[in-house]
């Protein structure tokens, strides 16, 4: 839940920064080792985005695998879970290169109708 | 309607990390050593603090404690008998502390008067891992009654910590707890993780824990 509140705050700040109106989709990278669960993120997003500029936006969650580099044999391997030994040489000296990401990668923003001064009716003006 | 893709590439917890770094600067500026304590409910976080504060009170060391709890002030009450300020942070149901809560609580504490500040997180081995608070070291407490598979099962938090306290070792004779398994998993996940064995009930190993705290203080003060 609080990951999603942090996400919404981050996305809304970005939306204001680029002058957008609504968010159509958000792409996240949630690594297999990050400790976050996509299903839970999605249900929290559905609840918390209600009434915000993100309401109805599509949440796309990419799940980068665990990437390790073996300090002994130099192999770079992708794993589906954190293995404790290098699958190539069985060594222990693994360095984590990826899989713990919790990133907002990209968002698709709607900007509303292009503004044409003078063409639009403005009830307040004139 | 016009729409465009905007590249972001920001950490979701960017704001938390930012406040955590501010906390850290405050800690550095006032020369206080800050220890984050994490562990499952019942692993012995508060008991370890009781033992620690007993020692500190006897030896004239000054400490304060921030205690995260879902809804009650019980942990802070347990610690109130010591000569150390305890501030309860009630998270209102949230399963972890965030840097901002710690930041606000610091207003109630005079950091410059302290040797140590302990931040006891909510009992949980998952969510607190992602929320850095600004602490100098992170200590995970695992009671041996929880089982010898817990290091492998919670890799994220184990990787984020600097020390692992194995508590309740007085119970080892009654459990099928294979300490070798813990050591192997630690070796594979986070070889630098310091393992400390103790029992808060009997007091065994508490002096090693105190010595560890002194080492951490030595390192943080050198800067």
Explain what this protein looks like in three dimensions.
- The complex is a heterodimer of chains A (126) and B (223).
- Chain A is α+β, with helices and mostly antiparallel strands and 126 residues long.
- Chain A has a domain at 2-65 and 99-110: 2-Layer Sandwich (hypothetical protein PF0899 fold).
- Chain A has helices at 2-18, 38-48; strands spanning 22-30, 58-62, 66-70, 76-79, 94-98, 102-112.
- In chain A, the strands form two sheets. Chain A has a three-stranded mixed beta sheet with strand order 2-1-6, with helices on one face. In chain A, strands 4-3-5 form a three-stranded antiparallel beta sheet, with no helix packed on it.
- In chain A, helix 2 links the parallel strand 1 (22-30) and strand 2.
- The longest helix of chain A is centred in the first third of the chain and has 17 residues, at 2-18.
- Chain A is elongated, with a radius of gyration of 21 Å.
- By secondary structure, chain B is an alpha/beta fold.
- Chain B has a single domain, classed as Rossmann fold.
- Helix content of chain B is 37%, strand content 23%.
- Chain B contains eight helices and eight strands; from the N terminus they run E-H-E-H-E-H-E-H-E-E-H-H-E-H-E-H.
- Chain B has a seven-stranded parallel beta sheet, with helices on both faces.
- Chain B is globular and about 70 Å long.
- Classes of the chains: A alpha+beta (126), B alpha/beta (223).
- At the A-B interface, helix 1 and strand 6 of A face strand 1, helix 1, helix 6 and helix 7 of B.
- Strand 6 of chain A pairs antiparallel with strand 1 of chain B.
Keywords:
heterodimer, A: alpha+beta, hypothetical protein PF0899 fold, 6 strands, 22% helix, B: 223 residues, alpha/beta, Rossmann fold, seven-stranded parallel β-sheet
The span between the termini of chain B is 55 Å
Structural class of chain B: alpha/beta
**CATH 4th-level superfamily of chain B:** P-loop containing nucleotide triphosphate hydrolases
Terminal Cα span of chain A = 47 Å
Structural class of chain A: alpha+beta
Contiguous low-pLDDT stretches of chain A (5 residues minimum) are 117-126
> What spatial order of strands do you see in the largest sheet of chain A?
2-1-6
CA-based shape of chain A: elongated
> What composes the largest sheet of chain B?
7 strands, parallel
Mean pLDDT of chain B: 92
The helix tally of chain B amounts to 8
**pLDDT < 50 stretches of chain B:** none
Order of secondary-structure elements of chain A = HEHEEEEE
Shape annotation of chain B: globular
């Amino acid at each position: 839940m609080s990951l999603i509140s942090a996400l919404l705050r981050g996305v809304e700040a970005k939306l204001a920064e680029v002058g957008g109106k609504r968010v159509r989709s958000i792409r996240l990278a949630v690594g297999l080792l990050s400790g976050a669960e996509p299903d839970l993120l999605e249900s929290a997003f559905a609840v918390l985005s209600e009434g915000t500029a993100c309401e109805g936006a599509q949440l796309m969650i990419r799940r980068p695998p665990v990437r390790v580099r073996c300090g002994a044999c130099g192999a770079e391997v992708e794993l589906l879970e954190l293995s404790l030994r290098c699958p190539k040489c069985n060594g222990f000296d693994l360095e984590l290169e990826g899989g713990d990401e919790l990133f907002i990668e990209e968002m698709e923003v709607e900007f509303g109708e292009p503004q044409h001064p003078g063409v639009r009716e403005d009830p307040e003006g004139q | 309607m016009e729409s465009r893709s905007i590249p972001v590439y920001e950490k979701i917890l960017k704001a938390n990390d930012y406040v955590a770094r501010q906390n850290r600067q405050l800690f550095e500026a006032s020369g206080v050593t800050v220890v984050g304590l994490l562990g499952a409910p019942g692993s012995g976080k508060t008991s370890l603090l009781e033992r620690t504060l007993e020692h500190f009170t006897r030896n004239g060391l000054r400490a304060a404690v921030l205690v995260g709890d879902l809804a009650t002030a019980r942990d802070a009450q347990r610690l109130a008998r010591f000569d150390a300020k305890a501030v309860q942070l009630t998270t209102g149901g949230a399963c972890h502390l965030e840097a901002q809560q710690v930041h606000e609580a610091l207003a109630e504490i005079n950091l410059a008067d302290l040797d140590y500040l302990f931040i006891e997180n909510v009992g949980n081995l998952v969510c607190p891992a992602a929320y850095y608070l600004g602490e100098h070291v992170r200590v995970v407490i695992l009671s041996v009654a929880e089982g010898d598979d817990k290091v492998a099962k919670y890799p994220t938090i184990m990787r984020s910590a600097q020390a692992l306290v194995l508590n309740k070792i007085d119970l080892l004779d009654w459990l099928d707890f294979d300490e070798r398994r813990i050591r192997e998993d630690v070796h594979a996940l986070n070889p630098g993780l310091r393992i400390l064995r103790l029992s808060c009930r009997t007091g065994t190993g508490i002096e090693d824990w105190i010595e560890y705290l002194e080492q951490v203080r030595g390192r943080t003060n050198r800067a």
